[in-house]
């Protein structure tokens, strides 16, 4: 019995992790052609046709009514658009 490992002729070595990462990075940058920023999504509610988003002096998200100029808080995670809908409903 021989203690040497048997070699298989014509065998192919599997790609290393760094080879597969490089090839994936090259193909994704070639197909997308972007700089990594997300595409802006359109607003999902009709409220934004009546209001304009602004940034105040404290860097907080605010919105301003297009008709009367009143300002409201509009942070998507804290405030939402319910108060804006209520305000629009109070006109009619």
| Gyration radius, rounded | 29 Å
Order of strands in the sheet with most strands: 1-2-3
- Whole-number average pLDDT? 74
Sheet having the most strands: 3 strands, antiparallel
Quantity of strands, as a count: 3
Beta fraction of the residues? 5-15%
Instruction: Briefly note the structural class of the backbone.
Output: alpha+beta
Series of secondary-structure elements, N-terminal to C-terminal: HEEEH
**Helix content estimate:** 25-40%
Uncertain residue segments: 25-29
- Which of globular, elongated, flat, extended, rod-shaped describes the shape? rod-shaped
End-to-end Cα distance: 96 Å
Number of helices: 2
Protein name: BED-type domain-containing protein
InterPro entries: Cuticle_assoc_protein, Znf_BED
GO molecular function, one term: zinc ion binding
Keywords: Metal-binding, Zinc, Zinc-finger
Q: Which helices and strands appear, and what pairs or packs with what?
A:
Layout: H1 17-32, E1 51-55, E2 61-65, E3 71-73, H2 82-89
Antiparallel strand pairs: 1-2, 2-3
């Amino acid at each position: 019995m021989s203690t040497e490992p048997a070699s298989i002729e014509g065998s192919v070595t599997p790609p290393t992790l760094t080879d597969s990462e490089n090839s994936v990075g090259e193909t994704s940058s070639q197909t997308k052609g972007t700089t990594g920023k997300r595409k802006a999504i359109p607003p999902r509610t009709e409220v934004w046709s009546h209001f304009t988003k602004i940034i105040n002096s404290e860097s907080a998200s605010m919105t301003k009514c297009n008709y009367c100029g009143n300002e409201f808080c509009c942070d998507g995670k804290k405030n939402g658009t319910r108060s804006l809908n209520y305000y629009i409903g109070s006109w009619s």
